[in-house]
């Protein structure tokens, strides 16, 4: 009988926190910082020289989900007052889309965290909250930075908290994967966690499978974990690897192409 795999100390520490020091990040890293008392996280790609490329709504604008979330979730644009802009970034308080900011403006006073790629299924499920890691492997840093810099010049579409948000942007830069589905959820672990939690709560048939609060809680958490797992970009099958140039130039015909048929590298620019 084979022995069960034992987690290493770094993996055990990673369950508790992905916090990282500023001098530990490298170009091509997917970083994030929690906002509004850990209500949600803002994500971006570190490109070196103290700069981060990220996707956002303009500061002070509501996200426009059409739900109750509009009342308390706002933009993650750098929030320096317009009369006292960052000396490096300038006034970005009304800027939206894919932007480049210094690390300090990106963090907005928050802590720095590193999004993990290529984690084991066990470690992924052990993470109680989505939007911190994925089973999908990352592409090489030069590919990641090429996508981020290309999208900085060309945009990443219209921001949507569920379908196309800052985490979706960072995950695409790291993997080149896009989701093609009729379900209104993109690649974001935060969005899928929200959906998973909702599914666990409203799954009324589960109420009859157990008695007592502890049993119901265990079943509900199981549904939550399974929903998160099957929605992860590294597990789901409705994803395609799309070169960043094709994403901008030919957005229409891409849905009919096989997932592994295309890869993008810095050499393919303009193809």
From TrEMBL:
Gene3D superfamilies: endopeptidase domain like (from Nostoc punctiforme). Residues 32-182 form the LRAT domain. InterPro entries: LRAT_dom. Signal peptide: none annotated. PANTHER family: OS05G0310600 PROTEIN (PTHR46137). This is LRAT domain-containing protein.
């Amino acid at each position: 009988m084979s022995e069960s795999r034992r987690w290493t100390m770094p993996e055990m520490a990673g369950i508790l926190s992905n916090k990282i020091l500023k001098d530990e990040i490298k170009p091509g890293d997917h970083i994030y910082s929690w906002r509004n008392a850990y209500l949600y996280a803002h994500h971006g790609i570190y490109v070196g020289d103290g700069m981060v490329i990220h996707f956002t709504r303009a500061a002070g604008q509501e996200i426009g989900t059409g739900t109750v979330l509009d009342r308390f979730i706002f933009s993650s644009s750098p929030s320096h007052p317009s009369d006292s802009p960052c000396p490096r970034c300038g006034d970005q308080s009304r800027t939206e889309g894919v932007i480049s900011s210094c690390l300090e403006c990106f963090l907005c006073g928050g802590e720095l965290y590193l999004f993990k790629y290529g984690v084991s299924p066990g470690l992924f499920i052990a993470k109680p909250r989505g939007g911190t890691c994925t089973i999908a492997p990352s592409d090489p840093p030069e590919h990641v930075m090429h996508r981020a810099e290309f999208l900085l010049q060309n945009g990443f579409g219209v921001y949507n908290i569920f379908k196309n948000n800052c985490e979706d942007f960072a995950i695409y830069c790291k993997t080149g994967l896009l989701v093609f589905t009729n379900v209104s959820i993109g690649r974001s672990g935060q969005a899928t966690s929200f959906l998973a939690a909702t599914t666990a709560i409203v799954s009324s048939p589960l109420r009859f499978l157990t008695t007592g609060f502890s049993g119901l809680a265990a079943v509900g958490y199981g549904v939550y974990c399974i929903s998160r797992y099957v929605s992860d970009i590294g597990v789901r099958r409705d994803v395609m690897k799309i070169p960043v140039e094709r994403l901008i130039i030919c957005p229409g015909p891409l849905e009919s192409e096989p997932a592994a048929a295309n890869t993008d590298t810095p050499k393919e620019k303009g193809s």
